[in-house]
Amino acid sequence: MKYRKLGKTGLEVSVIGVGTWQFGGEWGRAYRQDEVDAILDRAAEHGINLIDTAECYGDHVSEALIGDYLSRRDRSRWIVATKFGHHFHGFMDRTWDSSLTGVEAQLEKSLRALRTDVVDLYQFHSGSDEDFQRPELWTMLQRQKALGKVRHLGISIASKGGPLQAEQAQRAGAEVLQVVYNRLERRAERDFFPSAREHGLGILARVPLASGFLSGKYVNFKSFPANDARSTFDQDKFQRWVSEVEEIRKMEVPAGVAMSQWALAWCLKNPLVSAVIPGSRDVGQLEANADAVKLVEG
Ligand SMILES: NC(=O)c1ccc[n+]([C@@H]2O[C@H](COP(=O)([O-])OP(=O)(O)OC[C@H]3O[C@@H](n4cnc5c(N)ncnc54)[C@H](OP(=O)(O)O)[C@@H]3O)[C@@H](O)[C@H]2O)c1
Questions:
Q1: For ligand 1, mutation pick of 176, 207, 222 (most atoms within 8 Å of CB)
Q2: Are 203 and 177 in contact (CB under 8 A)?
Q3: Ligand 1 pocket, 156 CB below 6 A?
Q4: Is residue 122's pLDDT more than 80?
Q5: What average pLDDT does this structure show over 14-41?
Q6: How far is CA 25 from CA 10, 28, 71, in A?
Q7: What is the pLDDT of residues 52-90, one digit of tens each?
Q8: 57 is catalytic
Q9: CA 3 to CA 29: how far, in whole Å?
Q10: What homologous superfamily does CATH list for 3-211+258-295?
């Protein structure tokens, strides 16, 4: 594995992390504990030390599966990132709550589910600029840091979010940005990376495989099953991606290289990106994603 500094946090993260929205049960199937154990054990064997989860991947379901795992392993080797801002009600059904008491309660639930005393990175989860620009929210979060419940603060910027949260991250006390960044979606380079460079913020690249499309495997894509989160995304965009991916495969991916691995390494060519956090459906995908490190320079 290779490791990079996560901005000024002092954390050294593996360049390949584990995205765990899938564990929450909205990607076509529920997960058993032994399946999660196998994925995370294999990740650890590869030297991966970064897990990204959230309060609303199921009602703290992904966190609870991770927490059960951590309770039986060495918690201290992992950097655990989770998020706040939502209540989960069912498949792709959430309400936003960034009230001070609401977030405090969410943090307690996350700590309990993760079976840990401290969250290493606590991220504002795709909230609006209006909700972001409330100094009292960030004051309360600083208090959680002082209490030792949170180590570092971050902002997971909404997929349609503009540059404001990145520009004001430092003032809010956030040290890390989690942004959509992959070969098909490069807006982060314009909207978020300049602030990251200026303020020394760490960047986590999420959706690095463009929801799986950059694996190149959806050649005859029609649709995702109704119980897969991706069935609720922009389907026209997916259709466009199928042909764009074919073009990229022909023009940019070297012969003999797995496109998914190439796509992860592509994100990491930018030294501002500390880590990619692909979601792995199973041990096979985790293995392939971890091996992408062989294509990463620096
Ligand atoms: N707002 C937010 O903060 C936010 C939003 C989205 C995601 N995230 C985080 O970012 C993580 C990653 O994003 P994502 O899971 O949405 O998208 P992604 O990582 O771009 O794509 C994940 C999908 O790619 C496919 N895949 C993964 N590895 C593969 C491999 N080696 N070969 C072939 N196919 C492979 C799988 O699709 P199949 O299931 O079809 O096999 C998998 O479900 C999430 O898990 C979550 O932790 C955060």
A1: 207
A2: yes
A3: yes
A4: yes
A5: 98
A6: 33, 7, 21
A7: 999 999 999 999 999 999 999 999 999 999 999 999 999
A8: yes
A9: 32
A10: NADP-dependent oxidoreductase domain (3.20.20.100)
pTM score: 0.98
User: Cα-flanking dihedrals φ and ψ of residue 78, to 5°?
Assistant: -105, 140
pLDDT digits (tens, 9 = 90+) for 159-210: 999 999 999 999 999 999 999 999 999 999 999 999 999 999 999 999 999 9
Closest CA to 49 of 83, 7, 6: 6
Q: Which residue puts its alpha carbon closest to atom 31 of ligand 1?
A: 285
Identity of the residue numbered 244: E
- Show me where the domains of the chain are located: 3-211+258-295
62 lines ligand 1 (CB under 6 A): no
Res 298 pLDDT > 80: no
